[in-house]
Amino acid sequence: MSDQHPVLYSTYQWLVPEQFNIAQASLQRWAANAAEGRRIAIHHEGPQGERSDWSYRQLADVSNRLANGLRKMGTQKGDRVAVVMSQRPEAIAACLAVLGVGAVLVPLSAQLGTDGLALRLRDAEARSIIADGTAAPELATIMEQCPSVQQLIGLEFQNDHTLSWRTLQAREPADFQPVSTLAEDPAILLYTAGTTGAPKGVLHAHRVLIGVLPAFVAAQNWYPKPGDLFWSPVDWTTASGLLHGLLAVLYFGRTLVTTAQPARGADALRLLSRHPITNALLLPGDLALMHEAEQAGASIENIRLRALCVTGDVFSPALQEWAATTLGTAPNEI
Fold first, then answer.
1. Domain assignment present for 40
2. What is the pLDDT of residue 195?
């Protein structure tokens, strides 16, 4: 293949519209079309292996009801709203509802514990929290430590501080028009891990999604192609998992596989065999665990990957070679 870099570099232009909203681009425009709205957005496997499919219309209905609830609760453009949930369809709906009302999404992991969550919530000056049962044990204490938090929406748990997710879903309409936002308006506040000091918040505008799409498309071997099915165990509280995975796939109106617990090692190989997954995003550690599982006898039959992107730390040439020969595609790094 001839080197096309000089041509691509010299002719490339950023096309960033003045107005842009991630929720509109990644959900609402698909759900508004009858045919596109029926397309499957998510194949989900629950904690017991139970499966459910969510269409773009179903995802929008849940997200819209939540967005209407947030609006009635007084959520304003620019308010910070934290989402502390496992990798589940409701978490996707929550993230897009926050973005749709023009608020700033603060995705956080329940694994941070009470102190880690409270530190980030105070720094973000979060106004509201949307959480599921994974975060429930810490939330009573966290609410006491975070005076800015005024509302808590809870899925699958209830306490004196909580507005029930199911109650909100039952009482709110499914019609919603996203707030008009500029491409430069703040959209997502992501925190670093804090492994080398205090965690730092990085504020991204709505235009960040436009910025990552070229890298996503190239790293996934010119995504999307007909029949592409995406999966990644990378957490949606990170830039890689959220921007180079979840939101990029939804932007193109395609389908992704999600699991309640991140599939790793032998579980990841079984997942790749159960579903016709063509595109994946992994951390080097994920790839190493898959290699170890295969060496221990895990089956690699029926794997249909056409593109594999690895993000994060550098990984060994031996692991790259194993992926290319065993999984059928050479990894691309971002």
1. yes
2. 76
Residue carrying the six token digits 């595109």: 279
pTM for the whole thing?
Answer: 0.95
d(CA 178, CA 166): 22
Closest listed residue to residue 28, CA positions, set 100, 120, 95, 98 = 100
- The whole domain housing 268 covers 214-333
CATH number for the domain including 303?
A: 3.40.50.980
Domain count, the chain: 2
66 and 127 housed in the same domain: yes
Average pLDDT score over the chain: 95
First to last CA, the chain: 21
For the chain, the C-alpha Rg in angstroms (whole number) is 20
What confidence category does residue 193 fall into, taking pLDDT thresholds of 50, 70 and 90? confident
Which residue's structure tokens are 């009302």? Answer: 101
249 found inside a domain: yes
The mean pLDDT of 127-153, rounded to a whole number, is: 91
Does 118 share its domain with 253?
no
pLDDT at 1 over 70: no
Give the DSSP letter of residue 174: S
243 in the same domain as 96: no
With b for 16 or more beta-carbon neighbours within 10 A and e for fewer, the 220-254 pattern comes to bbebbeeebbbbbbbbbbbbbbbbbbbbbbbbbbb
